[in-house]
Write a structure and sequence with these properties.
The chain is 44% helix and 16% strand. It is an alpha/beta fold. Strands 9, 10, 11, 12, 13, 14, 15 and 16 form an eight-stranded mixed sheet that branches. Strands 3-2-6-7-1-8 form a six-stranded parallel sheet, sandwiched between helices. A hairpin with a 6-residue loop joins strand 20 and strand 21 (703-708). The structure holds a DNA duplex.
Length: 727
DNA sequence: AATGCTACAGTACTT
DNA sequence: CTGTAGCATT
């Protein structure tokens, strides 16, 4: 490819960012403005026009998906492999450095990574070993405390504990660290903290500073304190740093991300040149100006106004549903409409604030026989059966991995219960040894009951004999032996129903996922595989090319785009979420809404419900304040007005943004069912009074769903039911 | 030791 | 309403 047409594909601002000669760059890239494009072209441009080698580049992202994407696109652009370039997530890159320098980092060579689940478990153990009340010191909150400190770069001894509460937390932190080190384990935050400490070694630091002359960071608004430090460390006098981000899309403050890092960057690197990418290539101008108006309500902004040269497109649809069933019905009808209009299923996304909202939508999609896929949820490597199998493998590599030991010592059940395990724990704690070592000495002393002694001996033998296979078998062969000889397969076969079957299939899937041939030893392959399993737990499931409706939370939608986007549940009490109001995070909620809206390319459909069942109770919510922040003339209010209150009747401070009464019109989820409508109160001869919730079918086959005051929710065939309208 | 039951909690989530 | 963790029961 010629250098020229390579740059021709860029707009002036993008080109300025790609070809900048300044040492440090801050690129404020609005949604859909070609952020990744700039990052990729910048790297390609550096490699093409300067003497830089891929080896000199360090590119950092938050997800593996983004990292893979960047590498792939650079290789496409350059038509060459860039193997030696380091592209990865903060955690995977830190991990790589720790593996390379495990001795300097004072880690065992075969250290393993704790996932979030295992970490909470280990924190629980620490709480228990200090004999603290688990009600008061919940493992979850203590884990948050520990991670919070690590992410601020603080070790226990650096914590100022003046009050008794903090003193206790600090104590648990210390205990946790002791256990963690004993077991040769490293948690996610530890990867970064340990790496920051590792790079304090002057020799290493100067080595990497001279190697990575160019550092590029994606999604900079999402970096936390330790990640910022980590990047900063690479910046010697000659190094160049480019950060790309969008303060309006910062939605992870709740997990420690610091938008302030953007301002901090400008202070720490005063020579940094700022470039704004404001031309949007994704959305219609209607969607864009709605999003712009919404986000303008935030005070804490660096300021940026997205524009597009594209067409204005359709108005944004707004549907006021009677309840969540009506909402789901509307969404599915509208989906069908768009499918008929020629959109593929995978071009349509349904977004919501909280995961619980997906259920009703899913039920209706199943009923309508529309294939869908829910993003998020349990990941492959987080499934119980997979973690069991991996724990066996971990124990084969490292006998001191008590976390793995505890997980599988009695899975499948082999007669080693709490009693026996308690003895081992006491032994281990008393002598400062691992559970495995405690088991060995206990076996030797013959102090257990015969039954426990035999059971433990058999477990000991099992692990020893599997370990021998490490040297003689490939990883898939070894793993197959593990799940069979341990009895895991048998154990899950016993589990009744589809669940057990699914677990077996997952275990077989695991064997397929294992690397087969390599020059390395099985031990090395296994070590790498186990780390990757924890660091890349998400990717594995991505079945590309599935043509499904995409369901996900607003958070999960970040970075994606779809021709047709639904945002459901725009209600006070749900979105913005009340939890965020307490903590004064309204601006972050608004940014989340902004992120959701800017995912849409052609069509945006917003819905809210007047009544919503949450936690088994009915809630009457008013429409989200975010709806009022969208200019009325961009909205097309479709609703079955008969039983809903116009939003304009709500008390609002922004009277200029009231919805008009004029543009309402009948819509798809036609609410009339043979003279009845959803939301209507009716009387049934036998069941008494109730409210119509939903309906399905047509003509004489129509069935309607009614919630009766006394009898609960029932489906009735309209043909055979006598109903009296009460409203 | 395994199963069944009750009580309880219930924003967002990648690594 | 739903899923889960811990407890009680056999």
């Amino acid at each position: 490819m010629e250098k020229d047409d390579f740059l021709d594909a860029l707009n002036p601002a993008q080109r300025e960012a790609v070809c900048a000669t300044q040492q440090h760059l801050l690129v404020l890239a609005g949604a859909g403005s070609g952020k990744t494009r700039v990052l990729v072209h910048r790297i390609a441009w550096l490699l093409k026009t300067t003497p830089l080698h891929p080896y000199n580049i360090l590119a950092v992202t938050f997800t593996n998906k983004a990292a893979n994407e960047i590498r792939k696109r650079i290789e496409n652009l350059l038509k060459a492999s860039v193997q030696s370039m380091w592209v990865g997530t903060f955690h995977s890159l830190a991990h790589r450095l720790l593996r390379l320098h495990w001795q300097e980092a004072q880690l065992p060579q075969n250290f393993q990574i704790l996932d979030a689940d295992d970490q909470v478990r280990l924190v629980r153990r620490s709480i228990q070993s200090l004999q603290l009340d688990e009600e008061r010191w919940t493992p979850r909150s203590v884990t948050n405390f520990i991670n919070g400190k690590k992410e601020s770069g603080l070790r226990p001894n650096q914590i100022q504990a003046h009050d008794p509460h903090t003193k206790t937390l600090k104590q648990v932190y210390e205990t946790y660290e002791t256990l963690r080190k004993q077991r040769g384990l490293v948690d996610f935050s530890e990867l970064l903290l340990a790496c920051v400490e590792l790079l304090k070694n002057p020799n290493l630091l100067s080595h990497y500073q001279s190697r990575f002359t160019h550092v590029l960071v994606d999604e900079f608004q999402d970096t936390n304190t330790i990640q910022y430090h980590w990047i900063q460390q690479f910046m010697g006098a000659q190094n160049s740093l480019m950060t790309v981000g969008d303060d309006d899309q910062s939605i992870y403050g709740w997990r420690g991300a610091k938008v302030e890092n953007i301002q901090r960057f400008s202070q720490d690197f005063p020579s940094a040149h700022t470039i704004r990418l404001e031309q949007n290539y994704r959305s219609t101008s209607t969607i864009l100006s709605a999003a712009n108006t919404l986000i303008a309500n935030n005070d804490q902004r660096l300021g940026k106004n997205l524009w597009t040269a594209g067409e204005s497109g359709e108005k944004i649809s707004l549907y006021a549903a009677f309840n969540e069933l009506d909402e789901a019905n509307f969404v599915i009808e509208k989906i069908k409409q768009n499918l008929r209009a020629g959109y593929d299923r995978k071009q349509i996304a349904v977004l919501y604030r909280s995961n619980a909202q997906s259920r009703v939508l899913e039920e209706n999609l199943i009923q309508a026989a529309v294939p869908y896929r829910v993003y998020g949820g349990l990941r492959f490597f987080e499934r119980a059966e997979i973690k069991d199998a991996l724990s066996y493998l971990r124990l084969l590599l490292n006998r001191n991995d008590d976390t793995a030991f505890e997980r599988i010592i009695n899975v499948p059940t082999r007669g080693i219960g709490e009693q026996t395990l308690g003895i081992l724990r006491d032994q281990a704690k008393l002598n400062q040894i691992s559970l495995w070592q405690a088991m060995l000495s206990t076996l030797k002393s013959q102090s257990l009951t015969t039954r426990a002694q035999t059971a433990l001996e058999r477990f000991h033998l099992l692990i020893e004999s599997l370990t021998e296979l490490l040297n003689s078998r490939s990883l898939p062969e070894l793993t197959s032996a593990v799940i069979h000889q341990s009895g895991l397969i048998e154990h899950y076969q016993k589990e009744k129903g589809e669940k057990g079957q699914a677990r077996i299939e997952n275990l077989e899937e695991l064997i397929n996922a294992l690397p087969v041939a390599s020059n390395e030893t099985t031990v090395q392959i296994l070590t790498d595989f186990l780390s990757n399993a924890v660091l890349e737990s998400g990717e594995y499931e991505a079945k590309a090319g599935d043509d499904c409706i995409q369901l996900m939370t607003l958070h999960a939608a970040k970075g994606l785009e779809f021709p047709v986007v639904f945002i459901c549940g725009l209600e006070e009490g749900l979105f913005p979420h009340p939890m965020s109001l307490n903590e004064g995070n309204l601006e972050e909620e608004r940014r989340l809404c902004y992120v959701g809206m800017t995912r849409a390319m052609k069509k945006l459909i917003l819905t809210y419900s007047e009544i919503r069942r949450m936690h088994g109770q009915e809630h009457h919510h008013s429409p989200s304040r975010f709806l009022r922040e969208i200019p009325t003339d961009l909205l097309d209010e479709v609703r079955p007005a008969k039983f809903t209150f116009p939003i304009s009747m709500q008390k609002t401070e922004h009277s200029k943004n009231n919805f008009s009464h004029f543009n309402k019109k009948p819509e798809v989820a036609a609410v009339k069912i043979a003279g009845f409508h959803i939301g209507q109160t009716v009387r049934h001869a036998k069941f008494g009074e109730g409210v119509i919730l939903n309906y399905e079918g047509q003509g004489p086959q129509t069935r309607i769903q009614i919630r009766f005051k006394k009898e609960g929710i029932k489906w009735l065939s309209l043909e055979f039911t006598q109903l009296i309208a009460l409203t």
